[in-house]
């Protein structure tokens, strides 16, 4: 199902906005990279819910930082 939303990244100094339509490879690559980053952190059966949530949060923050630095 197509989404009515798209991702935008704003370059604050210039005001330039980069947009990605839903479902493009950049979105799929983002998800794949996020899953990989979370799995590297050691999420598994023995981890608590808190630990898993912290790992997901850290992986999201890292990935968003990396993404913004490359735009």
What does this structure look like?
The protein is an alpha+beta fold. It has a domain at 24-70. It contains two helices and two strands. A two-stranded antiparallel ribbon has the order 1-2. A hairpin with a 4-residue loop joins strand 1 (7-11) and strand 2 (16-20). The longest helix is centred in the last third of the chain and has 22 residues, at 49-70. It is elongated and about 45 Å long. The model has no long low-confidence stretch (mean pLDDT 81).
Features:
single chain, 71 residues, alpha+beta, two-stranded antiparallel ribbon, elongated
What is the overall pLDDT average? 81
Helical content band: 40-55%
Overall geometry: elongated
SSE order: EEHH
Query: Strands across the major sheet, in which order?
Result: 1-2
Count helical runs: 2
The CA-CA distance between the termini, in Å, is 27 Å
Quick recap of the structure?
By secondary structure, the chain is an alpha+beta fold.
Set down the secondary structure blueprint:
Blueprint: E1 7-11, E2 16-20, H1 25-40, H2 49-70
Antiparallel strand pairs: 1-2
Helix pairs in contact: 1-2
